[in-house]
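JOB MANIFEST
job_type = single_chain_structure
chain_count = 1
residues = 179
[input]
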Amino acid sequence: MTVIDGSLTMLLKARGLFLTREESDAAGIVYVCLDDGLPGGYPVGYVVPSRAGSWFAYARARAGRVFACDQVDAGLSGIEAAVRAVLDHARYGDVLYALARDSGAEVSYTAELRRDHATWLASLPAPNGITHLGGGRVRLTGPAVAYLRGLPERRGCHVDAEDRLWLAGEPYRLVRETR
């Protein structure tokens, strides 16, 4: 496997992603895959070198499309830049949502948000499982949190590896509820 820097390796691991390489007659393709418990994982993007030495990045940028990727960047200087471009655009929250839902685990989280953020979050059409409890407090099901983990950071609304919900550049701590 291609050697990448430690910060990118940690970022991939924190998001439950890994890289795998496939050699073809034309080029060596590096896939960015979600560890879904199946051999080979679920591909959420890939990078391809050009003959000129630059890299192209493709990502599953539109949720709900099975194994369909769009070109998200081109002319990148190296594999690390290309993988980061995939991470900036890949959307796989729907896959994480389904895995969490199908696990049967009954997990939920609460967070104290600004009231306008709580109202906005609860009004989202997806994911299901977000309830505004009033006064800026929200409850999110495990699958809803999983969905938000699979959104690109650049979109502004996501959950990071440290269980923080990010909205409009502001982090809110998620508290796991015990049952």
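[summary]
The chain has a mean pLDDT of 87.
The longest helix spans residues 79-89.
exit_status = 0
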